[in-house]
Specification:
Layout: H1 7-19, H2 22-29, H3 33-47, E1 52-55, E2 58-61, H4 63-87, E3 93-99, H5 101-106, H6 108-118, E4 122-128, H7 131-139, E5 145-150, E6 158-170, H8 176-179, E7 184-188, H9 194-205, E8 210-215, H10 219-227, E9 233-236, E10 244-246, E11 258-265, H11 272-285
Parallel strand pairs: 3-4, 3-5, 7-8
Antiparallel strand pairs: 1-2, 5-11, 6-9, 6-10, 6-11
């Protein structure tokens, strides 16, 4: 008897494989953690394969899960493309998109790839810059759509993406040689930087002395200096690389706020291509979308 795969179950599976969390997947897909868990169990039952290995709080794909994920993503892509072709208007024109490095690294390929397949007559110019420069550029009409990190509690723009900020060090240097130093050696981006401010404010709130020992305008520089054992920094969870490890709460560093990316656009500028791209971003990345 042929197996009929359920799209919602496949989407839950693909999202759990990306987030590593049933709870976070539920938040993204607008469902409860228990509903996501049930969808995964039903999918595993229908295909008679175990897709995830659960070890305490951590979750990872089995070998069969890794192979199945590739095909599941293909199915989801074709499904979403078919729906988009029916629902999206035919538009053409030019769009200037500005986004942060973190957004570009994690989401840009998916967002632009899926958009281009359904809107081949739209030309997109992309700029990756700091949130401050992106906001200034938007104010000066250099960008039609901007995706920028915002301060905690800001309500301007539309919330698109949130993730945890994590203290990280390299996983080879003994933690005591970094975390017990006084002052604490920090690796940061140049000021003004929202993550830099979050780090120093959190340390100041617990009266922990700190000193900046290295700066980089891009995450790649911070990642390299962390891996070299120079000090500690904070990165969005998606920017943590192999060779780094999260500083655990019991190791004494204060908690950090979430990093939030918000979208800024001008719906009254007459640029239908920009409005179409903005709507596509929302549909791909907010809880009602992918």
């Amino acid at each position: 008897m042929p197996i009929n795969l359920d799209i919602d179950q496949l989407r839950a599976f693909a999202t759990v494989s990306r987030t590593g969390s049933f709870t976070r997947t539920g938040e993204l897909l607008g469902r409860t953690q228990s509903a996501i868990s049930l969808q995964i169990k039903r999918l595993e039952t229908s295909i008679e394969r175990k897709l995830f290995e659960r070890n305490g709080r951590s979750i990872g794909l089995t070998n069969e899960g890794e192979r199945f994920l590739v095909e599941a993503n293909h199915i989801l892509e074709m499904h979403d493309r078919a729906i988009a072709l029916l629902n999206q208007p035919a538009v053409s024109g030019n769009v200037s998109l500005g986004c942060t490095e973190e957004f570009a690294a994690v989401h840009l390929t998916d967002v632009l790839g899926s958009f281009q397949r359904t809107h081949q007559n739209v030309h997109i110019e992309i700029a990756v810059d700091t949130s401050l420069e992106l906001r200034n550029g938007f104010s000066n009409n250099r960008y039609d759509v901007v995706l920028a990190k915002t301060a905690q509690g800001e309500t301007n723009g539309q919330s698109i993406w949130r993730e945890d900020l994590i203290w990280v060090i390299d996983d080879k240097t003994p933690s005591a040689s970094i975390l017990l130093r006084d002052p604490l050696p920090l690796l940061v981006s140049p000021s003004p930087c929202l993550i830099r401010h979050a780090m120093t404010a959190a340390l100041d709130n617990v009266c922990r002395k700190w000193a900046i020992v290295g700066t980089s305008e891009v995450n790649a520089g911070l990642q390299a200096t962390v891996l070299a054992g120079f000090g500690v920094t904070a990165l969005p969870r998606s920017a943590i690389q192999s060779g780094m490890r999260q500083v655990l709460p019991e190791e004494g560093l204060p908690p950090l706020p979430q990093s939030e990316v918000r979208m800024f656009e001008n719906p009254n500028d007459g640029n239908d291509a920009a409005r179409c791209l903005a709507g596509h971003i929302v549909s791909r990345l907010t809880p009602s979308g992918v």
